[in-house]
Write a structure and sequence with these properties.
Number of domains: 2
Structural class: alpha+beta
Number of strands: 21
Helix content: 10-25%
CATH topology of the largest domain: Rossmann fold
Oligomer: single chain
Distance between the termini: 51 Å
Strand content: 25-35%
Order of helices and strands: EEEHEEHEHEEEEEEEHEEEEEEEE
Number of helices: 4
CATH architecture of the largest domain: 3-Layer(aba) Sandwich
Radius of gyration: 21 Å
Shape: elongated
Length: 325
C-alpha cells in the first residue's frame, strides 16, 4: 500500500526545569516503531514539569483527548476515517494539536485533504527546496527575533499555507521562504512542522529547544510561571541585540552589538544561508565593526542573505542581512 507524506511546514541538551502553576499532561501519539522519538519528547516535557502519556493508537483515547493540554502527533499515520473524525471532534471542541508530518493511505487521500482544508489549509508550492541548517522567527509573529540551528543539513518544505484565514508561517528556513513552522489560530490551535525540532542545537536560551517549545506552549495558552533556582545559570541576565546599517547593503554595512558588555576578544561570526561560517570580525570595546562583504580570505562573497551572530554567545539573536551587488 502506497503511503504519502504531507510535509507541513514548520521548532544532548542542557535545559532548565520549569515551575508550573498547575499540572499539565501531554499525549504523544507515535508509530509502534518510534519509541525513541517519544522518549525525546518525554525528556523535553519532563524539563518543563509536564507529565506525558504515549500511545500507538489514538483511538484508545476516543472521548478523552481533552484530558490533555496538547496532543502531539509525531510521524503518526492517520490511516482511517475514525481517526480523522476523532481529530475533527477534538479541534471542534477547541483542542490544541501539534503534528510533525502526517502519513496516510492513498485511499484516504480525499478524506485527509478535506480534513486539512477544513482545519489546516495548505497547498503544494512550485518552489524548489534548498538545503539549510539555520531557521529564524518571522518578523511580526511571536517567534520574531529567534534563530535556531540544526547540526546537519535539512531541506526546505515544499508546501505553504493557502492565502487568507488564520494560518501563518512563524518560523522559516534561511535558504528560501518555504516555511518551517506553521500555525493556525482559531477556537482550536495547531502547530505543524516537518522537521525534527527536538534536535536543534543548544545555542543558548532562548535559541534552543527549550526557548522554542516555551513559545509554543505560550501560544497554546499553557501558563509557564518561571524558572526554578537550578536553572538560573542557563538563563542570561543580558540579551545581545545585533543591528546593522544599511540593510540591504552594497559595499559594506556597519554592525553593532548592544545589551551585553563586549571586550577586546569579542567577535561577530558571519554565516551564509547554509549555516557555514565565512568570516569572524573583531568587535573591540566599542561593540561595532564594518563588514565589507568578503570572506576570511578577502574574496568577495556573492549577493544573498547572510547572518551575524556574537561568537560564543549563549543569548544573542542571529541578525539577518542582505547583500545586494
Amino acid at each position: 500500500m502506497n503511503k504519502f507524506l504531507i510535509t507541513i511546514t514548520i521548532l544532548a541538551l542542557a535545559m532548565p526545569t520549569m515551575v508550573l502553576a498547575d499540572d499539565h499532561n501531554m499525549l504523544i501519539a507515535v508509530p509502534a516503531d518510534s519509541s525513541e522519538l517519544a522518549d525525546d519528547y518525554i525528556e523535553l516535557f519532563d524539563e518543563f514539569g509536564f507529565s506525558s502519556s504515549v500511545t500507538n493508537d489514538l483511538l484508545e483515547y476516543e472521548g478523552n483527548l481533552h484530558d490533555f493540554g496538547v496532543v502531539f502527533l509525531l510521524d503518526y499515520s492517520v490511516a482511517d476515517t475514525q481517526t480523522l473524525n476523532l481529530l475533527s471532534e477534538f479541534l471542534d471542541e477547541s483542542g490544541n494539536l501539534y503534528f510533525r508530518n502526517m502519513w496516510f493511505e492513498y485511499e484516504n487521500y480525499e478524506e485527509v485533504e478535506q480534513f486539512l482544508m477544513t482545519y489546516f489549509p495548505v497547498g503544494w508550492t512550485t518552489c524548489e527546496t534548498f538545503p539549510f541548517t539555520w531557521m529564524h522567527g518571522v518578523d511580526g509573529t511571536f517567534m520574531e527575533g529567534y534563530s535556531f540551528q540544526f547540526s546537519s543539513q535539512h531541506w526546505g518544505s515544499n508546501v505553504m499555507p493557502y492565502g487568507g484565514g488564520n494560518l501563518e508561517v512563524v518560523v522559516e528556513d534561511n535558504s528560501q521562504v518555504c516555511g518551517c513552522v506553521s500555525i493556525v489560530s482559531h477556537d482550536y490551535k495547531i502547530i505543524a512542522s516537518e522537521h525534527d525540532l527536538e534536535n536543534i542545537m543548544d545555542n543558548g536560551y532562548p535559541n534552543n529547544v527549550y526557548g522554542l517549545f516555551e513559545k509554543f506552549f505560550e501560544y497554546f495558552g499553557i501558563e509557564i510561571t518561571g524558572l526554578d533556582e537550578e536553572a538560573e545559570g542557563t538563563v542570561p541576565g543580558d540579551y545581545a541585540v545585533i543591528s546593522n546599517y544599511p540593510n540591504p547593503f552594497n559595499s559594506g554595512t556597519h554592525l553593532s552589538v548592544e545589551g551585553v558588555e563586549v571586550g577586546l576578544k569579542a567577535r561577530l561570526a558571519i554565516y551564509n544561508i547554509l549555516g557555514e561560517e565565512i568570516i569572524e570580525l573583531p568587535l573591540g570595546n566599542e561593540g561595532g565593526v564594518t563588514w565589507n562583504g568578503v570572506d576570511r580570505h578577502g574574496n568577495n562573497v556573492p549577493s544573498g542573505v547572510y547572518f551575524a551572530r556574537l561568537k560564543g554567545s549563549t543569548s544573542g539573536q542571529a541578525l539577518k542581512m542582505t547583500l545586494m551587488k
